[in-house]
Amino acid sequence: MEEWKEFSAKTSDEALTNALIQMETTSDQIEYEIIEEEKNGILGLFSKPARIRVRKKESIEGSVRSFLDEVFGAMNLTVEVVIDFDEAESVMNVELKGSEMGMLIGKRGQTLDALQYLTSLVANKKSENYVKIKMDTENYRQRRKETIENLARNVAKKVKKTGRPAFLEPMNPYERRIIHSALQGDKYVDTHSEGEEPMRKVVVTLNKEYASELPRRNNNYKRRNNYYSRDRKRSYSEKRD
Fold it and tell me: For residue 201, what are the contacts with CB-CB under 8 A and spacing of at least 6?
């Protein structure tokens, strides 16, 4: 947070103009308070100048950095915060670096998600346009995405084999979208979400329209077993005869 600086002049407007010149900024980038109004004495005697205090408005990036520094200080963690803010796209990427990042990730990324949500509230508190916060550490988001995509493919394979629906564990909206996206190209299965947050989960079901096109491995397996059983019985009977 920028420190307050005091300025004085004959009038508060003149004091503000001096402040903008010295601070090399514009009026929309600062906030100021009048400490004391100018006073005009009789015949110019005993007059007092106006006094104001001025500071630059904290940027969105500055607000985010101040918030995270305060949080990590309270947690006694040394964390390097790397911020890349694309103002044109209103997207802020926040990368956290340190030796104890597992604590900030939490179980299935829950701590990281919570920290990202709180940071989003801070960033958008005074922002005119919504700023999307993307927070990551140790490439966790990409690794988690790959894990979920593999899970989706394995679950789909099981559904196609058994014909029974599969209910996944509760996931946040972002991770549910990964499941839907990973399986949208598989015509043999459908996906939808059920339940209420935070227990909402993805359900993978067999697509009835294309189910008939799937290889009937189970039926073939049973048919082979039946043939094998009949052959064994026939062979056993022949031996007895």
Answer: 167, 168, 169, 170, 171, 176, 193, 194, 195
Q: Which helix (H) or strand (E) holds 133?
A: strand 132-136
Q: Which residues have CB under 8 Å from 72's CB, separation 6+?
A: 78, 79
Rounded Cα–Cα distance for residues 140 and 119 (Å):
18
Q: How far apart are CA 152 and CA 107, in angstroms?
A: 19
pLDDT tens string, the chain, 241 residues long: the values are 678 999 999 899 999 999 999 988 888 888 899 999 888 766 556 678 999 999 988 889 989 999 999 999 999 999 999 999 998 999 999 999 999 899 999 998 999 999 999 999 999 987 889 999 999 999 999 999 999 999 999 999 999 999 999 999 999 999 999 999 999 999 999 999 999 998 999 999 999 998 888 886 544 434 444 444 444 444 433 433 3
**Cis peptide bond upstream of 198, omega within 30:** yes
- Sequence-separated (6 or more) residues with CB below 8 Å from residue 106: 112, 114
